[in-house]
Amino acid sequence: MRISELAERAGLSVATVKYYLREGLLMPGLSRSATQSDYDDAHLARLRLIRALAEVGGLSLASVRDVLTAIGSDPQDVATAVGTAHEALGAAHRSAGGAEPVQARAALAELGWTVWPDSAAVRQLDAALTAAASVGLPTTPQRLRVYADAAMQVATSDIDTVPRDSADATAAYVVLGTVLYEPILLALRRLAQQQVYSSRAQPDGRQQG
Amino acid sequence: MRISELAERAGLSVATVKYYLREGLLMPGLSRSATQSDYDDAHLARLRLIRALAEVGGLSLASVRDVLTAIGSDPQDVATAVGTAHEALGAAHRSAGGAEPVQARAALAELGWTVWPDSAAVRQLDAALTAAASVGLPTTPQRLRVYADAAMQVATSDIDTVPRDSADATAAYVVLGTVLYEPILLALRRLAQQQVYSSRAQPDGRQQG
């Protein structure tokens, strides 16, 4: 397809697609003449990935590049792609650096999880645990266990539903899933709180409006 | 206690505490002289709540005010406090307005949840479902169910662990819990993904460095 069709199908302007080409985020098309190139579904998939990371994930183009590089460098190794995606997505926490994530490591030890001890997600967890404790709401072992069990169910489903047809698609899917499904989980938690209150307030089980 | 001790215990500067007093976010202390007031634990709790909402939740002072007003107006009604907190926290989604949250309502119907159909969390869910679908990763009914079940476990635990000793504390706790425990859940989901890959890659169950 031509660049105009590619842009339209990706929901982007031609100028933006050309910008991604210049920046090397999108691989060049197949040259058909001095002024025309041909693009295929791989280009479309790449553009959708960039857009999701930038618009939904709120990543800077530099972070988008990190994620794309991670996927491109060894797309067969999904576990590494996941780790690298988490690093790029959690860059804010990684750069916060400095202090050791003591609370998070204690929590992970309690859960018996053997994750990469220096990953951005560990620092993200540590920052969150520290923030809660600092306002007088430390995370109890019981809460940690409930949250971890729920997170594990979600993660297991995430990984079991990853398509296996192509390594490239697999890595892209994992990265996208991390970014795209997080807000769904958060929205559902808030709605579940409403649902619990709603159902407890109406013991006879009547439906609301 | 004096304002200096209050500020120190809240981890804020005296200037910031005075600013919150002027803005009406913090209720006045008990006047002891023309230049001195006395503050108690209720003031400290209020300051910690403001700080958590602003710093961890990333809320504007206007949104913080909305949440505090909701808590203050009828602190006995926790369900209403939860709903109002969600509205204030999801203000970005509420103001996006316009289109009906069709996808979210379909999802909620499928789950059988009877939540407030116009709440900010419904729009938040709709925006997330739409974003995922727009990049070719629609949320399947299976995924929706897994995420909803996990969210329900978390929400049930959230609500069961709410302290009942004072209505004021209860509402503050619910609001804080919404803000503070979300990043913990997200970090745990990422770490759980790492844990699943790690445990599957090592079927003999050896521990990693």
Structure overview:
Two copies of one chain form a homodimer. The radius of gyration of chain A is 21 Å and the shape is elongated. Chain A is mostly helical and 209 residues long. Chain A has a two-stranded antiparallel sheet with strand order 1-2. The N and C termini of chain A lie far apart (49 Å). In chain A, helix 1 (3-10) packs across helix 3 and helix 4 runs antiparallel to helix 5 (78-89). In chain A, 69% of the residues lie in helices and 2% in strands. At the A-B interface, helix 3, helix 5, helix 8, helix 9 and helix 10 of A face helix 3, helix 5, helix 8, helix 9 and helix 10 of B.
Strands, helices and their partners?
The structure is a homodimer of 209-residue chains.
Chain A: H1 3-10, H2 14-22, E1 30-31, E2 37-38, H3 41-56, H4 61-73, H5 78-89, H6 91-96, H7 102-111, H8 120-134, H9 141-160, H10 167-201
Helix pairs in contact in A: 1-3, 3-10, 4-5, 4-10, 5-10, 7-8
Descriptive terms for the model:
homodimer, 209 residues, mainly alpha, 2 strands, 69% helix, elongated, disordered C terminus
Order of helices and strands of chain A: HHEEHHHHHHHH
The quaternary structure here is homodimer
Tell me the distance between the termini of chain A.
49 Å
Please state roughly what percent of the residues of chain A sit in beta strands, choosing from under 5%, 5-15%, 15-25%, 25-35%, 35-45% or over 45%.
under 5%
Q: Greatest contact pair?
A: A-B, 83 and 83 residues
What is the total tally of β strands of chain A? 2
Using the alpha-carbon principal axes, give the shape of chain A: elongated
